[in-house]
Specification:
Structural class: alpha/beta
Largest sheet: 5 strands, mixed
Low-confidence stretches: 1-9
CATH topology: Rossmann fold
CATH class: Alpha Beta
Number of helices: 3
Number of domains: 1
Distance between the termini: 26 Å
CATH superfamily: Alpha/Beta hydrolase fold, catalytic domain
Strand order of the largest sheet: 1-2-4-3-5
Helix content: 10-25%
Number of strands: 5
């Protein structure tokens, strides 16, 4: 996990993860840091900031909203996927890095098909 370059301290809205293939994924966290994890994929176009409006409601409901940016958006490096199912590997890498054994997955607008494909492949 990177820290905010401007302040040198961790910022829940501007985090990033380095993947094994050298790419970076930007992501933000909203809501209760100890809550039940929900990985939320943004629309097209969009970014991790799309889910900032969930912060207060997620805190009240004990949810931890984790909003990664899909490749080519915000802090995430560009990468052309062959299919929507390729999103699953990025979601899995993020979940593993954050130590998530179980999580809910949702997608907003253009992120919906990515979430459905990833949920199908990552179901347990």
């Amino acid at each position: 996990m990177d820290t905010d370059e401007n302040s040198g301290v961790s910022d829940r809205a501007s985090q990033s993860l380095s993947l094994g293939d050298g790419r970076k994924i930007g992501y933000a966290e909203y809501g209760d840091p100890d809550g039940l994890p929900v990985i939320a994929l943004h629309g097209t176009p969009g970014s991790r900031f799309m889910f900032a409006l969930t912060d207060e409601g997620a805190r009240a409901r004990g949810l931890r909203v984790i909003a990664p940016e899909r490749p080519g958006y915000g802090r995430s490096d560009f990468h052309r996927f062959e299919t929507l199912a390729d999103t699953a590997s990025d979601v899995e890498a993020l979940a593993d890095a954050l130590g998530l054994d179980r999580f809910a997955l949702m997608g907003m607008s253009g992120g919906g098909p990515h979430a459905v494909a990833a949920a199908h492949l990552l179901k347990s």
